[in-house]
Amino acid sequence: MKKSRAGNAKNLKRKGGQKQQSSELLANHELVVIAAYLAGAQSSSIDTEDIAVKANELAPGRFTWRKYVHQINIDTVRKRLWDASNTNKGGYLIGSEKIGWRLTKAGFDFARRKMKRGGLTKAPKQRTSQNERAAQSREIRRMTHEDAYIKFVSGLSREITKSEAERFFRIDDYITGKMRVAKVERFRIIANNNEKLLRAIEFISSFVRED
Question: Which CATH number does 15-116 carry?
Answer without folding.
Answer: 1.10.10.10
